[in-house]
């Protein structure tokens, strides 16, 4: 062990730089390259105000370094073995189509069980699509809510009856264990974690660089029967843009419908088909996002934030933030001011 460098006498002590949060991505045989690349693309782009990276992202295998098969016509060379799991603050299990006993019998292989046993207590657990089968087979989802790709949800529920499977959402945040549906829902979940860890400004910048929507709420429908309206039909895009421009004002459903020259009934049906939630649910979520942004990045009073976000009163905003985030506005602001102070030290 090398000795620490002795500080010069009388020199002020430099604050120790906190170790970056380490995200370890597990690549199993049959891994889907798109899903495997999501954590690096999202977490790897997250920066603080000084331009410093906020996460280290490492990809590992359950075997010593070497090639791992994908579901495409090529393999990938993974440079880290299972020992990398011992340093994980967050584990992300990507989707694979070759899970073998995990998918067929809900049982970990000896090799996979040995690898996962290296995880430290308290590591955050995340799955994308069928990666949830691995978390489930390890027993980490027992008694918890979870989701996976809608096409696998029935099988997932039969195989793991102790899990509360919800196939109608993009992702589920259950604190230290988070699961997502397939493909792009993995992007939504990773952006959600960046937002949860470092606030909306950082997450929005990552989304902007990745050219994806900055926020799709986890409760949004996973599978919408008609995600793209028929060309001859009007959409609700104009009404949404109109509402976003005046979130601080009272907005009635009929006001939004009038922007598209539709009846309230037709507008409500069309809106749900396109967005996956009702206009009222969507409007509340946009106001919550506006409130989060103002609480993080402004010095406005809680009462003023409530007015600017369209909640009217601090009490109303408190109820909505408590329901959406599990914290009060004051606690939310305190969390991110403390985070800013740590990054600035």
Structure description:
It contains 14 helices and 10 strands. The protein is α/β, with parallel strands linked by helices and 345 residues long. The chain has a 6-stranded mixed sheet with strand order 2-1-5-6-10-9. Strands 3-4 form a two-stranded antiparallel sheet.
Helical amount among residues, as a percent range? Answer: 40-55%
Strand content: 5-15%
**Low-confidence segments, ≥5 residues, pLDDT <50?**
1-16, 223-232
Strand numbers in spatial order across the main sheet: 2-1-5-6-10-9
Mean model confidence by pLDDT:
87
- The shape, in one word, is globular
**Strand tally:** 10
Structural class by sheet pairing and helices = alpha/beta
Helix count from the secondary structure assignment: 14
Order of helices and strands: EHEEEEHHEHEHEEEHHHHHHHHH
CA gyration radius, whole angstroms? 22 Å
Distance between the termini: 28 Å
Which sheet architecture does the biggest sheet show?
6 strands, mixed
Keywords for this entry:
single chain, 345 residues, alpha/beta, 6-stranded mixed β-sheet, two-stranded antiparallel ribbon, 14 helices, 10 strands, 41% helix, 12% strand, disordered N terminus
């Amino acid at each position: 062990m090398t000795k620490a460098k002795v500080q010069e006498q009388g020199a002020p002590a430099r604050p120790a730089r906190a170790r970056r949060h380490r995200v370890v991505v597990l690549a199993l045989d049959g891994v889907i390259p798109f899903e495997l690349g999501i954590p690096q693309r999202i977490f790897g782009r997250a920066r603080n105000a000084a331009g410093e990276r906020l996460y280290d992202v490492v990809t590992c295998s359950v075997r010593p370094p070497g090639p791992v098969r994908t579901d495409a016509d090529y393999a990938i060379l993974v440079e880290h073995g299972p020992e990398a799991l011992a340093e994980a603050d967050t584990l992300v299990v990507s989707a694979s189509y070759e899970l073998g006993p995990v998918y067929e019998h809900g049982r970990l292989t000896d090799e996979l069980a040995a690898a996962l046993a290296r995880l430290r207590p308290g590591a955050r657990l995340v799955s994308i699509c069928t990666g949830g089968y691995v978390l489930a087979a390890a027993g980490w989802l027992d008694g918890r809510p979870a989701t996976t790709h809608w096409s696998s949800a029935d099988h997932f529920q039969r195989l793991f009856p102790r899990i509360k499977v919800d196939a109608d959402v993009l992702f589920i945040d259950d604190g230290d264990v988070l699961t997502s549906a397939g493909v792009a829902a993995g992007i939504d979940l990773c952006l959600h974690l960046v937002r949860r860890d470092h606030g909306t400004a950082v997450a929005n910048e990552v989304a902007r660089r990745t050219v994806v929507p900055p926020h799709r709420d986890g409760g949004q429908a996973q599978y919408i029967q008609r995600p793209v309206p028929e060309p001859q039909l009007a959409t609700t895009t104009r009404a949404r843009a109109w509402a976003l421009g005046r979130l601080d004002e009272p907005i009635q459903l009929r006001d939004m419908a009038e922007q598209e020259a539709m009846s309230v009934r037709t507008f409500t049906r069309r809106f749900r088909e396109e967005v996956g939630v009702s206009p009222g649910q969507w409007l509340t979520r946009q106001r919550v996002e506006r409130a989060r942004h103002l609480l993080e990045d402004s010095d406005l009073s809680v009462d003023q934030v409530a007015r600017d976000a369209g909640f009217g009163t601090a009490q109303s905003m408190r109820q909505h933030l408590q329901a959406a985030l599990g914290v009060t506005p004051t606690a939310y602001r305190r969390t991110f001011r403390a985070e800013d102070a740590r990054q600035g030290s």
